[in-house]
Amino acid sequence: MDFNMKKLASDAGIFFTRAVQFTEEKFGQAEKTELDAHFENLLARADSTKNWTEKILRQTEVLLQPNPSARVEEFLYEKLDRKVPSRVTNGELLAQYMADAASELGPTTPYDRISLCHPGWSAVARSRLTATSASRVRAILLPQPPK
Question: pTM higher than 0.70, yes or no?
Answer without folding.
Answer: no
